Amino acid sequence: MTVLLDPAQHGPGRHHRSLRAAAVRVLLGNWTGNATVPSRSLYPHQWSWDSAFIAIGLRHLSPRRAQRELESLLSAQWADGRVPHIVFNPAVPCGAYFPSPDFWRSSTAGRPAGAPSTPETSGIVQPPVHALAAWLVHRADPAESGRRRFLARLHPGLDAWHRYLTAHRDLGGRGLAAIVHPWEPGLDNSPAWDTALRRVPPAPAGSFRRADLDHSAASDRPTDLDYARYVRLAADYRDAGYDDARARFAFAVEDPGFNALLIASEYALADIAEAIGADPAPARARAVRRTAALTDRLWDEERGIFTARDLHDDRLIPVRGVAGLLPLMVPGLPRRITDALLRTAAGDHFRLGEVHMVPSYDLTGPEFDPSRYWRGPSWFNTAWLIHRGLLACGAVAEADRLREGILRDAGATGFAEYVDPHNGAGRGIRDFSWTAGLALDLLCGHPERAR
């Protein structure tokens, strides 16, 4: 049962205790015995970056369960190193979610790329937050982690995952990982993808049935036309055997958020390597090179934010989205860039500290929509990442205000999937796992630095 918490009726300490108990109930309720589903309704399987954020929260409840969360996800890793964005639970009927296992056909279409025979998975990826999550989980209980050889067992898979993105996804040849589907950066229907998506012919009407509208209002979700284009992109990739060298990508973009998270995770991977007696130099070198490429390729001086680059015309996409603020958490950015990012976050486009959390899209943009998925609403995971970035660059007061806002909105909405940035109304699914997990993390104080 969803519990709504009103901080005005309690003191801060009592409210935080109630919020912690409610967050724990959500995480326990969504645990399947091996992993955590994002929700019991709309998302009944295991999602890649969800599990990373969930593990970050679970470490405060049970470090061992947090370890199992990541171990479960990586057990479905492909031989080429990719970590699929969905790991399907065979006990869930195919019709409960679309695209379902019989659409992706990972064990057959993905066999040449090294997909496992079981479990069935999707064939695309999500942002690589996993090494960062693994490092934070380890630090929650180093003794238990060491006893179970958690880092030593995960390191080869995490290293292969980063090497896959370096070797297979540098489609622009300039040192950044490219996304080949709007679902891959996690910001599914961001206006940043609109122009690139117009090149994609939609899948025929009637060739698929959306299951998401059974659980969420159509006004909150991507449009039918956008969804048909997502289906077309996924089907084309599948029909090319999920082969990054052979596929003809109608959508190929260098995204700043995806690459910022990869850089942060490279530094975490280096710390993991050092902790187990392996060589940290390769991961650190990749992080330094990718940081230089990020600044060179995706910094938009005019707009004061990082923007995505469309590889079809090799041009920056001239819109401001929340992904462009995520490099705040990247070590070693020039101070002039971090200062510009802080000004942009506080300015009219995002109004950090004035609205609820951090809008997913430019508040002044003509495409802004306060309720439709990633076209404007504020999300808890990106707010958590920006909170971490604010601390990393010394903006402690701004980080503290954002932290309190995240906790307030999590409790007031019953751990909603996302909120309207203007009025804080909860949108999407309630009892959402990463909302509960990240609220639990913030309740335990300032996050540790990844390095």
From TrEMBL:
Residues 43-435 form the Mannosylglycerate hydrolase MGH1-like glycoside hydrolase domain. It comes from the Bacteria. Keywords: Glycosidase, Hydrolase. The keyword Hydrolase applies. GO terms for molecular function: hydrolase activity, acting on glycosyl bonds. It holds the Pfam family MGH1-like_GH. Belongs to the glycosyl hydrolase 63 family. This is Trehalase family glycosidase. It comes from Streptantibioticus silvisoli.
